Amino acid sequence: MAPASRAPIALTIGEPAGIGPEIAVAAWQRLGARRPFFVLGDPGHLRGLGAPIRTISAPSEAAHASLSGLPVLVHEFPAPAVPGRPDPRNAEAVIATIAHGVDLVMRGQAGALTTGPIHKKALIDGAGFAYPGHTEYLAHLAGVDRVAMMLAGPDLRVVPVTIHIPLKEVPGALDARLLSDTIRLTDAALRRDFGVEHPRIAVAGLNPHAGEGGVMGREEIEIIAPVIEALRAEGLGVTGPHSADTMFHAAARATYDAAVAMYHDQALIPIKTLAFDEGVNVTLGLPFVRTSPDHGTAFDIAGKGRANPASLIAALDMAAGMAAARAARP
Length: 330
Description:
Elements: E1 9-12, H1 20-31, E2 37-41, E3 53-56, H2 62-65, E4 70-74, H3 91-106, E5 112-115, H4 120-127, H5 134-142, E6 148-152, E7 157-160, H6 170-173, H7 176-193, E8 200-204, H8 219-233, E9 237-242, H9 250-253, E10 258-261, H10 264-274, E11 280-284, E12 290-293, H11 310-328
Parallel strand pairs: 1-2, 1-5, 2-4, 3-4, 5-12, 7-10, 8-9, 8-10
Antiparallel strand pairs: 6-7, 6-11, 11-12
């Protein structure tokens, strides 16, 4: 079995009616043998997209196969892939590829897992998918209680404390344990996966101007500041709560290695503004490396030859770098 840092990356195809198949082919065309990876999916969904397809029977064959075509570890899907038109009949196969990818990386046959974008409604309609998204399903498969979502680009890493919930529910969901766990996961990931020896983490406030001393809200006083003080007492390099509207300009970004935000859009708006085509979704807290392109299925452009593979390429490169960083740690 190859060490995790050298084993090929497993790429799940995601929703085949989206841009997943075409960006997988484009990523292989640009990366060549420099970044060996294989696709978990139906070869029929990948043929005709401008690259030869090489079916493999085991991940260990991927590096050799990638010299002459895109390696595919076959998962047959019951329905064809019609661009822009997700078919619920494929839902169980989409889910099965994710579970298979997790199994391979947990057993060391794949060095990391990169996941193509899924369409949650199709999974719910076709298979009763019971999870808000990839992140929560991966946590279930890995058997871990707490994970966090990092969005990473060339100039910014952000981690939202609350993720896929309505904005009106954020204040009630925010508590000291969740915030503390998220900051700890961020600190651990920066050390283990990104080679940051002394992480600097900036924590945003929830309210405008970080509450302005309680005038605009008390979450900063009652929850956020006490957590920061407790973690600083343990030696973590945490600052805040900062006003979110002044955290993301260039000079501010130079003062930290990652920002922890209180809710989804507070984190994702700056990263998607700065690195829309290069952002990578990373799941923190898993016993393996998982990355994903920071975009969805893009049904509106699927099959039109307009999909940009840059985020997937960045996700594959980041997955390889993280796996190497983990393998290098004692």
